[in-house]
Amino acid sequence: MSAVNRGLRQATKSLHTRLPQRISQRSALPLLSSTFKTAAPLTPAALHARRSNFSTMASLQSAATTAPSPAGHKGYDPEIQDIADYVHNKPIDSELAFDTARWVFLDTLGCGLEGLQFKECTKLLGPIVPGTVVPNGTKVPGTPYQLDPVNGAFNIGAMIRWLDYNDCWLAAEWGHPSDNLGAILAVADWITRTNKAGGNLAGGKIFTIRDVLEAMIKAHEIQGCLALLNSFNKVGLDHVVLVKVASTAVVSKMLGLNEKQTADAITQAWVDGQSLRTYRHTPNTMSRKSWAAGDACQRAVNLALKVLKGESGVPTVLSAPVWGFYDVLFKGKKFEFQRPYGSYVMENVLFKVSYPAEFHSQTAVEASEKIHAQLKAMGKSAADIKEITCRTHEACVRIIDKQFKPMDNFADRDHCIQYMCSVMLVFGRLTANDYVDGSEAATSPLVESLRKKIKCVEDPQFTADYHDPALRTISNGLTVELNDGTVLPEVVIEAPLGHRLRREEAKPVIMAKYKRHLEPHYSAEKVQELLELGQNPKKLEAMEVDQYVDLYVSENSKFVN
Q1: For the MmgE/PrpD N-terminal domain, which residue ranges apply (predicted)?
Q2: Is residue 544 within 8 Å of residue 207, measured between CB atoms?
Q3: Is pLDDT of 7 > 60?
Q4: 536, part of any domain
């Protein structure tokens, strides 16, 4: 029974207990109406506290007596104001944040290029109407496409996220803040090309890569700070809601909207329909999880453009009684915040360096790689394993513990810790191709039997460390028992290679990953040019966006129809 229906039933029951038994429901109705007409108007706070005892209509009638008229001044929810203020007024002076953003930028573009190798991704890309080319539009890296900024944001966002290989942020809510690059790069490229052709978008702004990096830092911060203490997955919502909000905020500023207009656009992102996590979980796991971020990016750009055309906002979109986000979708809870907006998230973001695997499994896969080598040195293999215990953290158990669930498709496999560890233990590798239907790994009887022998057990200390702002570790420990009764020492990995605590160790591997993703698309000379440019911060940051994006255009891509 919904909260509204419960309130209605309770109000009706309360009314009946006050009425004489001889009064029929029909004669009671005027009294009910009279009761609400003569009652003193409730304040918004009192209404919120007592709304569970009233019907929906009662709440609306009471609110009508206290709410300002549409023409009057309406203050924005403070959560909205804080984001708009941050985007417009907070300078970013952290060189660590800019340096990290540069690595994230290169890594994210590389992940997008790698996604183009998969037909399930490329079939969704390109113009809505085949053959359409938008003059001065957004160019999509690795393709010949030139699109409007809304569709361009979808294309770039979808290819970035397709393989679940770009950066990651883990907290009460998890997500991938570099997903926002889909919206940021699409808008920066379109505005720059339009203005160079004589347009006057955003006051004639010509964006540089430095501008893109700053927008990335702020989008990371908005998404990450909202995620620190607020779990959207626990109410069934997908984390891409935060991509939509963060992208809307930074894109609004890029488009030249003022602070109030930016607040309007942010409210539109919150009132917009939010994605359910259904497509990430059995029995409905499917490829939408790979383009959900692209969808969030295109919605963000579309909403900001509507505000640019004069559309207003929804000032109390979060807090409005009955109809606001908190009451409708967040069980009446308000957002909590651990820290003010700055550059913390970019400075502490996690890179997926070694494996294209859901991040909660990264340390488990690394431990599996060590165990694979240990078994080989012993003259044994994965076939000699009787069982494995994976000591882990709560988020891992909730998201990717799928010991006995069927592996029906790519989306099932790349979000199953047992499958990913088994592939590493059997083959000594884990690549994106190992998730594909019909692949060697996906059809391996040994992988299938081994994954059912891996049991996950939550360690409360690992969970506490996961949420500790000073640690933010993603710990996993694997204990293997062999068929002959031998129990191998537990292999524990607390921080994956892409963690802040291992950042310097990771940088050469990040660059090697970027190079590996460039090579299928470009000549050796072009690959070398991009590598050298990526490692020259001053030259890269000063480069105009359209000129940089042009380096990635592939007019005759073998991966795009």
Answers
A1: 81-338
A2: yes
A3: no
A4: no
Q: Are residues 112 and 197 in the same domain?
A: yes
Q: Residue 384: which domain range?
A: 359-496
DSSP state of 351: P
Same-domain check for residues 278 and 342: yes
Look at the alpha carbons of 519, 525, 528, 532 in this order and tell me if their dihedral is positive or negative.
negative
Residue where the block lists tokens 């039997």? 449
CB burial class (10 A; 0-12, 13-18, 19+) of residue 145? Answer: buried
In this structure, are 415 and 311 located in the same domain? Answer: no
Structure tokens at 129: 């109407």
Name the β-bridge partners of 456: 390
Q: What is the CATH number of the domain that holds 86?
A: 1.10.4100.10
Residue with tokens 């702004």: 205
Helix (H) or strand (E) holding 379: none
- Residue 28 has a pLDDT of 34
pLDDT number for residue 357: 86
Using 50, 70 and 90 to split pLDDT, how confident is the model at 354? confident
- Number of structural domains (the chain) is 2
In the numeric block, which tokens belong to residue 246?
Answer: 């963060």
Q: What is the CATH number of the domain that holds 370?
A: 3.30.1330.120
Mark whether 444 and 481 lie in a shared domain: yes
The verdict on 317 and 423 lying in the same domain is: no
Q: Which residues of 276-287 are buried (b: 16+ CB within 10 A; e: fewer)?
A: ebebbbeeebeb
Query: Do residues 221 and 340 share a domain?
Result: yes
Please give the backbone phi and psi of residue 530, each rounded to the nearest 5 degrees, phi first.
Answer: -70, -40
Last residue of a domain, one of 303, 323, 351: 351
Question: What average pLDDT does the segment 329-348 reach?
Answer: 97
Q: Does residue 561 form part of some domain?
A: no
∠ CA 104-105-107 to the nearest 5 degrees? 65
The amino acid sitting at 130 is P
If pLDDT is split at 50, 70 and 90, which confidence band does 318 have? very high
Cβ-contact 242, 51 below 8 angstroms? no
Asked if residue 450 and residue 394 are part of one domain, the reply reads yes
Residues 384 and 303 in one domain: no
CA distance 177 to 170: 10
* Cα Rg of the chain, angstroms: 26
- State percent of the chain over pLDDT 70: 87
Flag whether 560 is in a domain: no
What are the backbone dihedrals phi and psi of residue 560, each rounded to the nearest 5 degrees, phi first? -120, 130
Residue 417 C-beta-side C-alpha neighbours within 13 Å: 31
Q: What is d(CA 360, CA 233) in angstroms, rounded to the nearest whole number?
A: 15
Angle CA(251)–CA(224)–CA(45) in degrees, nearest 5? 90
Which of 333, 351, 369 is where one domain is finished? 351
Judged by DSSP in three states, 237 sits in strand
